[in-house]
Amino acid sequence: MSIVEQKLATAFDSHKQGDLRQAKQLYIEVLNFEPSNSEALFFIGVLHVQTQELEIALGYLEEYLKNNIDAEALKQVADISFDLQRFEKAVKYYEAYLNLVGEDFDVLQNYATALVYSGYFVKSAEVFEVVCKEKETALDYFNLGFALSRADNPKKALDCYLKAYELDSTSAATCINLAGLYYDLYELEKALYFNKKAIENNPDCAESYNNSGNSYLDLNMIDEAIESFYSAVKLNPSYDGYKFNLARAYFAKGDLENGWEYFKYRRLLFERKDLKVQHLNDFSGNLEGKTVFVYYEAGYGDVIQYARYIPFLIKAGAKVIFEVQDGLLDICKRSFPDVQVVGQSFDYSDVKYDLQTNLFCLVWFFKEEKFPFADGFLISDSKKVHEFSKKYFNNSSKKIGLVWHSKNNDLRDRLKSVEHLSAFNSLADVSDVMLYSLLVGSGVNQIEEVSFSVESLGSHFTSFDDTAAAIMGLDLLITVDTSVAHLAGSLGVKTWLMLPYAPNWRWFTKGKDSPYYSSMRIFRQKVHGDWTNVFKEIVHELQNLGVH
Q1: In whole angstroms, what is the distance from residue 354 CA to residue 247 CA?
Q2: Which of 28, 141, 213, 345 could form a disulfide with 229 if both were Cys (CB 3.0 to 4.6 A apart)?
Q3: Closest by alpha carbon to 378, among 457, 304, 320, 318?
């Protein structure tokens, strides 16, 4: 027997008797003689699993597998990788193991979970389905529901979560996910039901109170939303998202004082962590001579609406670098000539500035100004205005612009939208009216599907500068809640805004006017999803008041 064989035999004996220290030393000595010795590599790997030194175990076992096809080692490496949350590697080794041994039910749950964390949701759902056929447990159906929801199959996911709830109604996690799916499907009463069940199962679950608040907001039950969001904040005061949601509810109610108090926490949700200079909201000194970098972190409409606060930085003596989306670059440069307006490709890494802030935070910083420049603050391109006027508006009719679709990314966008342009046919019957579409993107094809005449302008737009020029030629813009509504209001153009039953918080829940835009009038749905009363009111106004 060779020295290596003797040391291995002694190592095996020590290992078997539980003397892991001695066994480890002997395995190492063997590997010093023969670095690729398969038995030493395998058993020292197993030893390190026993001592919970998983990183070391992984190294030895992967080295062993370079020269050996071994089901047990493949499973060990897969399990170790799973425990270390290296899910891509776990998937690789679980698949190699299963290919070698065939189906092994005991590893399928970990394999499917690793697939989820690796982003392979469809495959994960397939594996979890096998698990659920073998044994019907609440946890397995919960996991299958999770995989299906991430695989963008919400209705099938819903069935799985309901099965999990049937098997175990005490799981707060199941109730939370059911509530979330029902919320996404806009079945708000059911979402509230399962949020309440989640709270019954876990009274300290801030997430469930927050989710209830979101459902109440969508149902226009503002007081209930405030109560729910407040409970979430009370249970988890460190999470600023709950505080901002509470601000949204207060604003929706028209309670500006409380709204501003909680609105300031929105900053921490969207602040750029790579900007190392002090945030404006933490600064209490004189802004004279300071350079402030203001960056966007929301949609076009948000940037248009809150750009009105930029001049107050200039008034305070600051120099301003204002980052906007490229589509807003030209109109913002013209409207704020004392500001360095930059686009999305701006490299701010080499620019010196003293303070930084996301645009929304200016609202809180200058909250004492309330709603400044409500009469308008953006400036259109006079040359483009003239070109649009000459080409499209050279007539004596009342020129009415239409925007009837939001961006249509999700169900809530669709609820803001009018389903089809044909719903505006009653406007076409009003005498001496010319209709123009300012729509870009989803819904434009409907212009060819209606029986009345609509001039399409949106196809000529390359930026908001073009949109602004077209708006300036209108007598009236009628629009759903989109960025174009903010643009028209910021230009001081007469605008009629069509809002769903539960509108975005910035429009409040009552009133015909907007404090943000003096040229805007609001028409609100009286019944969820039904625009009938809105169109009746608009046609009545057109017929009896005229458009001037």
Answers
A1: 29
A2: 213
A3: 304
Question: Strand 398-403 to strand 355-358: parallel, antiparallel, or no bridges (unpaired)?
Answer: unpaired
Predicted local distance difference test score (pLDDT) of residue 548 = 41
User: How open is the CA angle 517-518-524, to the nearest 5 degrees?
Assistant: 70
3-state SS, residue 535: helix
Read out DSSP for 403-462?
A: E-----SSHHHHHHS-S-GGGGHHHHTSTTEEEEE---STTGGGGGGSSS--EE-GGG-S
Which pLDDT value is given to residue 351?
Answer: 82
Length of the chain: 548
Give mean pLDDT, residues 495-501: 97
User: Which of 412, 504, 525 lies closest to 217, judged by CA?
Assistant: 504
| Lookup: tokens for 533 | 């009363």
Among 326, 317, 301, 291, which residue's Cα sits nearest to residue 485?
Answer: 301
| C-beta separation of 177 from 163 below 8 A | no
- Residue 373's nearest CA partner among 540, 514, 217 is 514
Q: Is pLDDT above 80 for 546?
A: no
Query: Which residues lie below 8 Å from residue 433, measured CB to CB, with a gap of 6+?
Result: 397, 398, 400, 427, 542, 547
Task: Give Cβ neighbours of residue 236 (< 8 Å, ≥ 6 apart).
Answer: 206, 242
Q: How far apart are CA 216 and CA 228, in angstroms?
A: 9
- Specify whether the CB–CB gap between 437 and 455 falls below 8 A: yes
Separation between Cα atoms, residue 467 and residue 488, nearest integer Å? 9
CB 471 within 8 A of CB 487: yes
- Residue 323's beta-bridge partner residues? 295, 342
Quick check: helix, strand or coil at residue 292?
A: strand
Among 42, 144, 128, 58, smallest CA distance to 93 is for: 58
Q: What is the pLDDT of residues 67-120, one digit of tens each?
A: 999 999 999 999 999 999 999 999 999 999 999 998 888 899 899 999 999 999
Average pLDDT, the chain: 92
Q: What's the predicted TM-score (pTM) here?
A: 0.83
